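Re-run with default settings, no changes from the original entry. Doing this only to confirm the output is reproducible before filing.
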Amino acid sequence: MSLALFIARRIYKGEDAAGAQVSRPAVWIAMWGIAIGLAVMMIAVSVIVGFKQEVRDKIVGFGAHLQVSNLNATTFYESLPIPVDSTLWHTLKADADISHVQRYSTKAGMIKTADAFQGILLKGVGPEYDAGFLKEHLCEGEFPSFSDTTSSNKVVLSRALADKLKLKLGDKIDTYFFQENIRARRLLIAGIYQTDLSEYDNLFLMTDIYTVNRLNQWTTKQASGLELTLHDYGCLDEATWRIGDQLQKRESRAGEELCVRNIEQLNPGIFAWLGILDVNIWVILVLMIGVAGFTMISGLLILIIERTSMIGVLKSLGADNRTIRHLFLWFAAFLIGRGMLWGNVIGLTFYFLQRYGGVFKLDPSTYYMDTVPVSFNLGLFLLLNVGTLLASVGMLIGPSYLITRIRPADSMRYE
């Protein structure tokens, strides 16, 4: 063990320096500055990462990772068919990056009640549809097993639409769709869900693909598109371009051109907003590391000033400036370690309380969820700890050179 580390451990364990009249408050302020700074960084990263993941998962739940649709459908509400033959289906199912493929068809229309009306987008799905997301957010009723060969006349709609139109489970609703003429359908409310994602909750009604295809006057071999779920979100961009290039080489019998778009391309506004949150993370990290570092610098300088006599004695005994600098850096590292320990305790306590207790609430109409979301990532947790330690110790290297200005002859008389 080096001399600097040995002396630093003796001082730290004996609370010698921390017991001094001036240095004790400074040491505690520096230590708690590290603790609070690390805790704030952990909470901020946990909340922002959790928020982004929650919003992303909700968007994926409504529309999967990728959508294959007709290139000539220039707007979200315009529905043009694509042929869904066995060759296309098996080609996509065989792709190593794709975990699930499902059809969908859409038809824009309107719900009319006795005293209100609302524009909607009727979305038809087949028996292969993965309803896990909507079942998880189901408030009342059930999610029917929709068929692609018969009409169920059942729909699942959101709590937001039900409250706005004063509808309840089991009600029959009149829907109207416009093409060459007005077509009406009376549908039964079989389930009500709530995701708090207003852009989708206020728009979609879920029903069977057979009903929507009949409204569009399409065959059973046609659909508005295919939704593709990936094994790994990290390969989203690569899979989009690769599958898009692959589908462009296919020639459709009717001449339809297929295009592939991912959820980030379909929802640019939401994902641009989520991207801005990354800037907030960096601002918080820089500010907290700066505050924690400067409190440690002030504490170190006070320790050096109070320990001037000890520095003089060590120099007179033959210790060089490098050894004494390392002594104080080791002592500061011990204080930083203690502060980081308390910071981790505070940060993890907040995480578990919020994760399993939902202590802090949000307005779902603004934030798309009713509680503050949190996410624990072991890699980010370790990176924050290592980064805080290195940044804090690194900021102390410069001030530690003050020791080189202290002369033994003067320091021996210092009080």
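Residues 3-58+270-411 form one domain. Residues 205 and 362 are 26 Å apart (CA to CA).
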